[in-house]
Write a structure and sequence with these properties.
The protein is an alpha/beta fold. The protein has one domain: Rossmann fold. It is built from nine helices and eight strands. α8 links the parallel β7 and β8. α4 packs parallel to α7 and α7 packs parallel to α8. It is globular.
């Protein structure tokens, strides 16, 4: 396993931004047969280190022959911010191309996945539903599925931050609305729709949102799987969810 921790310069952001990478242990032949890429997105209170600190990424990278790429987006909700950098354009468009310049990746749709937790679950769904031609699969754990609802219970300090993200009026445009994006994806031919995998703990404060959003995906006929079980908004549940998502999307590989 190779673990890289550093920063990368983004022309989109006009600055360097943190990036952590975990690759499979066996590097022989990676250029000829690149691993699948998983862009793994952090939550509101995390950064690009938290997935590597809290989850067994090396084990999953080896078992399924994956490379995990974990960018840093601060508390941007993976948006092109109203008053701040265009983080969504960076993560969904520029970052995969940048990673392919440094690491063996194909960037084929069937080899490119996006996953995330909480705010990162929202970001992962937004990436897959906005760019279904780029991401073959998406997993979202305890995702913030309904930002309109969130306005009613978030603390005042976070509400001020969200004005920096979405604008002073806190108007949720269609490009940031998962429900609207899902309806657009549902109009695509079935082969062009991204495969979705969602999980949420039954004790999570976002549980009701996830149940409603998963029901909408089913109603729209999108290829989505929803699983829930005991758990709150915490790493024990997310670690298990990541393992389930990898088993759902990938076949185990046996390396020489």
């Amino acid at each position: 396993m190779a673990y890289f921790k550093g920063s990368i310069y983004s022309e989109t952001l006009k600055m360097r931004s943190g990036l952590s990478v975990v690759t499979p242990k066996h590097c022989h032949g990676l250029r000829d047969d690149p691993p699948k890429a998983v862009f793994l997105l952090h939550g509101l209170s995390d950064n690009c280190d938290d997935w590597t600190v809290n989850c067994p990424l090396p084990m999953l990278a080896d078992r399924y022959r994956l490379s995990f790429f974990m960018p840093e987006v601060q508390r941007s909700f993976y948006t092109d911010m109203a008053f701040g950098p265009p983080y969504f354009s960076y993560v969904s468009e520029e970052l995969p191309r940048l990673c392919a310049e440094f690491f063996p990746l194909t960037l084929r749709r069937e080899d490119t996945f996006v996953m995330g937790l909480s705010m990162g679950g929202y970001g992962a769904l937004k990436c897959a539903l906005t760019h279904p031609e780029e991401f073959g699969g998406c997993a979202a754990f305890s995702a913030a599925c309904d930002l309109e609802e969130a306005r009613g219970y978030v603390p005042d300090a976070l509400l001020q931050e969200m004005r920096g993200v979405f604008g002073m009026a806190l108007t949720l445009s269609e490009k940031n609305d998962l429900q609207a994006l899902a309806r657009c994806c549902a109009a695509l031919p079935a082969p062009e729709q991204p495969r979705l995998f969602l999980t949420c703990g039954t004790e999570d404060f976002l549980h009701a949102q996830n149940v409603r959003f998963s029901s909408l995906l089913k109603e729209l006929g999108l290829p989505a799987v929803y699983r829930e079980g005991p758990g709150a908004h915490e790493w024990g549940f997310w670690t298990k969810s990541l393992e389930e998502a990898c088993a759902h999307f990938f076949r185990e590989r046996t390396e020489p």
